[in-house]
Design brief:
CATH class: Alpha Beta
Strand content: 5-15%
Structural class: alpha/beta
Shape: globular
CATH superfamily: Metal-dependent hydrolases
Number of helices: 14
Largest sheet: 6 strands, parallel
CATH topology: TIM Barrel
Radius of gyration: 18 Å
Number of strands: 9
CATH architecture: Alpha-Beta Barrel
Distance between the termini: 38 Å
């Protein structure tokens, strides 16, 4: 049950979620983002590599609206697409652009941060397009420019595996940024595209902070001090991210919260720890719905998180920062 204070705060706040995999799960399930059957059978690559496992959809347009989630980063994770990463990315992005066109009265594709504010004022939803794993560029800086023109505004340097840009957190004795990775980050800075350090190994994280001239973001990570998974950020990383103007968005993946007994209260513990280390202006939420964020049932849990943050004694203005204004600030600085 959500209190009147939490319900009123959540309804009036700008709520942004910085990571989901809902594009791909909808394509695999044959569903559109309005919750109905897919309008056009067009998926050629995404459904070739993995089939829908029947898991309940955690986020779509109706669920966003019902949960008071005003904007979300819709990512296409290309990691599974052996040898066809670029085509996989285009397949997913093309599907979502069709969905947005069908629902143009409902959702706005974000090209500038002001698009989120405007959509909120007009009662619309907003979508930030993202690619998870830079192998989607197929080793081309020119491809990055093309994705930017399509509307992509965030890119995860790598997944947990090895990419052409860097090594992920699960690569044994992994290296840092490659020459391509360094060129890619420079071009992302030039274009105005958000660099996502989630999934990077420690060396890659530090080298990304060193080479990026703009603030960077961990769109879906937790705190290693509370849970030792290599996907999580150390206290030193959290402090450095905050000092550099970046943002860490805490995620709802159970094994990143607690390897034995993950709970939603444990998620709030991670949020409080990130605030302590990175600072209140550098903490947000990135659920990983439809891609591993199964700690909670789905988007409808968001008001409960607002309630729990208030119960921990956070001021309303600080809760608003976590829910969305910290996201909006870094997007304003990076994408304009």
């Amino acid at each position: 049950m959500v209190s009147e204070q939490a319900a009123a705060l959540h309804e009036s706040a700008l709520v942004i979620d910085s990571h989901n995999d809902s594009i791909v799960i909808h394509m695999r399930a044959g569903l559109n983002l309005d919750g109905g059957p897919v309008r056009e059978q067009g998926a050629a690559i995404v459904t070739r590599f993995s089939r829908y496992n029947g898991a309940p959809i955690q986020l779509d347009f109706p669920k966003m609206r019902a949960a008071g989630v005003n904007a979300a980063f819709f990512a296409v994770d290309v990691t599974l697409a052996k040898g066809t990463h670029l085509q996989y990315a285009l397949d997913g992005l093309g599907f979502f652009l069709r969905e947005a066109a069908h629902s143009s009265e409902e959702i706005v594709i974000v090209r500038r941060a002001a698009d989120i504010t405007r959509a909120h004022e007009e009662g619309k939803l907003a979508a930030v397009l993202a690619i998870e794993n830079s192998d989607g560029l197929d080793q081309s800086i020119y491809t990055l420019s093309a994705f930017y023109e399509i509307g992509v505004r965030a890119l995860t340097v790598t997944h947990s595996t090895r990419s052409w840009a860097a090594d992920g957190c699960e690569v044994e004795n992994g290296g840092g940024l490659t020459a391509f990775g360094k060129r890619m980050i420079a071009e992302m800075n030039r274009l105005g595209m958000l660099v996502d350090v989630s999934h990077l190994n420690d060396r890659g994280f530090w080298e990304t902070l060193e080479h990026s001239t703009m603030p960077v973001m961990a769109t879906h990570s937790c705190c290693r001090a509370l849970c030792g998974h290599p996907r999580n950020l150390t206290d030193d990383q959290l402090k450095a991210l905050g000092a550099a103007g970046g943002v860490v968005a805490l995620t709802f993946v159970p094994e990143f919260i607690d390897d034995a007994a993950p709970t939603i209260d444990g998620l709030i513990d991670h949020i409080e720890h990130a605030i302590e280390k990175a600072g209140i202006d550098h903490v947000a939420l990135g659920s990983d719905f439809d891609g591993g964020g199964t700690l909670v049932e789905g988007a409808m849990t968001y008001p409960q998180i607002t309630e729990l943050l208030l119960q921990r004694g956070l001021a309303e203005d600080d809760v608003r920062k976590i829910l969305g204004t910290n996201h909006l600030r870094i997007l304003s600085e990076v994408i304009g």
